[in-house]
Structure formats: structure tokens, C-alpha cells
Amino acid sequence: MLTFSAVLLAAGHSIRMRRDKALLERDGAVMWRRQRDLLAAAGAAELLLSARSDQAWAETAEGFAGVVRDASLDSGPLGGIVAALERAAHGHLAVLAVDLPRMEPAWLAGLAADARPGVGVVGRLGGFFEPLAAIYPRELAPLARAALERRELSLQKLLHAGVTAGLLQARDITAAEAPLFTNWNEPTSPAGPGP
Question: Which residues in 103-123 are b (16+ Cβ under 10 Å) and which e?
Fold first, then answer.
């Protein structure tokens, strides 16, 4: 069984939501707690939290081995992924966005089961990768850091390079799995309430 670290990406500015998505509630749980528990249920041996310094709740959030700050300001998810890859205690890192309210532990556990030494797994749907619920190998860190330094913030481009380099394998997302990747981006988003 693969031993892996995990990071919950919660440092986004939630501009369209107009409030911190990490503090939204779903099924009676605040999103950051729901996603933290999901990562633990998926089998993560270490949990990290990617948050901004102005997110006061993150300083007292329980259940994390530490808080990581984006490796570069205003760098989107890539900044948090780079910081977590460089901090993680294990050779693989599960990444999960705080705004995926339909994600289930089985998805990440399945990716971890398919990962190999030096090779992670990312889902692909309709020709596009789903980078915010994936397993990355530590070996991807130099490529990710270099992309960040060039300000090439596109995760699609990075993951394509990772697949080409043999550091990632793509797993096709089925029609039944596609709803797991619904983002909760706006107050009226259909991803908020319901199953």
C-alpha cells in the first residue's frame, strides 16, 4: 500500500463566491473539515493545509501536520502544490481542492492504489486533466517549480509535461465519476446543496 502525504488547497480568494469557500457548510460540516476528513479516509499518512496568512481559521485548524504558504504570491493552485511537494514527508502527495463538495475518498484511494514509485496519477475528462483531486510524485517538484518560476501557471500544461516525462499516468474519468469534480464557485452553485 502506498504511503502518501496530502494537501488541502484552501488558499484561493473565492472571488465569485464572495466569501471563503473553506468556511462554507455541506451536510453539516464546514468544507475544510469535510475535505480534511476525506483525505484521511482516503489513507493519507500526513495532512497539510495550504492557506493564506490572512485566513485566521487556518491558524487553529485541527488535524493538520502543518500549514504551507504558496511558493509564490498570486500563483493559483500551482503555488500551493509546489510548496506542499517540497514540504511533504512522503514520496507522493494527494492534492484536493476545498471547493469539490462531491469528491469521495474512494477516488483518491483508487489513484493511490494505481500510483507507483516516482509516478503519480491524475484523472482526465474530455481531454482535460482534473489536477485538483490527484496524486503527484515528489519527482514532479522540479518541473512544477520551474513552471512557477517562469510564471506558467497552467496546471494543464504542467500535467501534460508530467505525463510526457513518465512522472504521471492519466486515468480516464467515467461519466459516473464526472460529478465528483463539480466545483462550488458561486453562492447559487448547484454543487452546494444536495447529494
Answer: beeebbbbbbeebeeebbbbb
Residue 25 phi, psi dihedral angles, 5° rounding: -110, 145
pLDDT digits (tens, 9 = 90+) for 114-126: 999 999 999 999 9
Low-confidence ranges of the chain (pLDDT < 70): 13-18, 71-72, 185-195
Buried b (16+ CB within 10 A) or exposed e, 166-179: ebbbbbebeeebee
Q: Other CB atoms closer than 10 Å to residue 40's CB: what's the count?
A: 14
Residue 37 lies in a domain: yes
Q: Residue 6's beta-bridge partner residues?
A: 47, 94
pLDDT value of position 108? 97
Asked whether residue 94 is domain-assigned, the answer is yes
Q: Residue 172 — φ and ψ, nearest 5°?
A: -70, 135
Domain count, the chain: 1
173 secondary structure, DSSP code? P
Kind of pairing, strands 25-26 and 29-30?
antiparallel
CATH of the domain at 63: 3.90.550.10
